[in-house]
Amino acid sequence: MTKKTVLITGSTSGIGLATARVFAAKGHNIVFNGLEANGAEIAADVAKEFGIDYLFSPCNVLESKQIDEMVSQAVDKFGTIDILVNNAGIQFVSPVKDFPLEKWNAIIGINLTAPFLLTKAVWPYMEKQKFGRIINIASAHGLVASEYKSAYVSSKHGIIGFTKTIALEGAPFNITCNAVCPGYVHTPIVENQIGDQMKAHGLSREEVIQKVMLAKQAIKSFIPIELIANTVAFLAADEATTITGISVPVEGGWTAQ
Ligand code: NAD
């Protein structure tokens, strides 16, 4: 694959950062994004390590104006965006009767509305050049539910529906759209849940990991982060040109049950 420009939301932490590293290792330009205080440093370090061109944007994906600005900056610098990875995401765990509306709105805003806004923003460039790869990081929770995660499960089921719709609309323009559905990967979003679940259930750290988190994950261990990143890279590669509208579970057998 020739050099492409890849925009990855939430790429200064976790799965997004691992994905950025895989694309950087292939020599692509990366548009980094994320809210980490040291995000600019993280992006600069990856770019230096792999000798790539890059841009860092601290855009808050809840703000449509900031999304448009980030895409404009990227297009000014690189001419286009070829690959969009909608990865930024948040979680909040609570029984529905206590679920705060502001948490619901933030989860739907970041996990579902932002991918819609980003897709809209990059679409004209992808359509014009008749090439685009959009990869949405959904979740095993896009395929099945767990209690106390009503907003997250709704957002991730929603993004799978969005993925299918965009696959249909993109087909005439060689724009593919697919989703990746990770099981539990040990990143900050999961680390934060361990603490919350310890408090909620009165369990130890190891009990939360084994009895709550990995209970449904058949392999009974966290998914190595590189496996998610490599799946994203495969969906963007020439080998996946005719793969569109699907959701790839990388969840250690969770949804086999
Ligand atoms: P993480 O917390 O390590 O990273 C999330 C990233 O999103 C961070 O860079 C953060 O700054 C960014 N972000 C959050 N809110 C943002 C906002 N308003 N604007 C811009 N950036 C924002 O989490 P992760 O585990 O790497 O999660 C990445 C994606 O993978 C999420 O969509 C998550 O739902 C999904 N996922 C994770 C797991 C897992 O087990 N870790 C499992 C399934 C799906």
Order of helices and strands: EHEHEHEHEHEHHHE
- Amount of beta strand: 5-15%
Got a strand count? 7
Helical content stands at: 40-55%
Distance between the termini: 37 Å
Number of H- or I-type helical stretches: 8
Strand order of the largest sheet: 3-2-1-4-5-6-7
Inertia-based shape: globular
Mind describing the biggest β-sheet?
Answer: 7 strands, parallel
Q: Structural class, from secondary structure content?
A: alpha/beta
Oligomerization category of the chains in this entry: single chain
Low-confidence stretches: none
| Rg, alpha carbons | 18 Å
* Average pLDDT metric: 97
* Bound heterogens, unique: nicotinamide-adenine-dinucleotide
Short structural summary:
With 257 residues, this protein is of the alpha/beta class. The protein is built from 8 helices and 7 strands, in the order βαβαβαβαβαβαααβ. Helix content is 48%, strand content 14%.
Helices and strands in order, then pairings?
Blueprint: E1 5-8, H1 14-25, E2 29-33, H2 39-50, E3 54-57, H3 64-78, E4 83-86, H4 101-129, E5 132-137, H5 150-170, E6 175-182, H6 188-201, H7 205-213, H8 225-236, E7 247-250
Parallel strand pairs: 1-2, 1-4, 2-3, 4-5, 5-6, 6-7
Helix pairs in contact: 1-8, 3-4, 4-5, 6-7
The structure holds nicotinamide-adenine-dinucleotide (NAD).
